[in-house]
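Chapter review: from sequence to fold.
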Amino acid sequence: MSNKPNEDFVKEGAQNVTEKDVEKVVNKSEEIKRRFNAKGPLARFVEDGQLFIAIVKDYWSGAYRQIPYGAIASMVFALLYVFNPFDLMPDMLPVIGQVDDVAIISACLILVEQDLHKYKDWKQGQG
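The token string follows.
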């Protein structure tokens, strides 16, 4: 696997995502949401992180299945990556430790952008 946090890194990581990983994101969603706070490098991705978690939860519950598993796997991989404090750049290093998290979320957004738009439209139709 490439050690460069980019789209290929996310694609390769997504290939190894299992149902247990999806379940872990669902179960740890509140802890993962805390990583996307209003301060720090991930602040601009707060809405995207919450959207990733929402779509994974809806996928897991069966409420929303109009999405390729590869897109779900990419989001799960990105969320677990952000959740892991010991990734390529340990999160204990202030700011620098989140730079790779930002890169992973950005790369994932590029990969799943169209799927997110479809999900948002579906979600708005539910309300």
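Two observations follow directly from the output. The chain is about 70% helix and 0% strand. Residues 7-126 form one domain.
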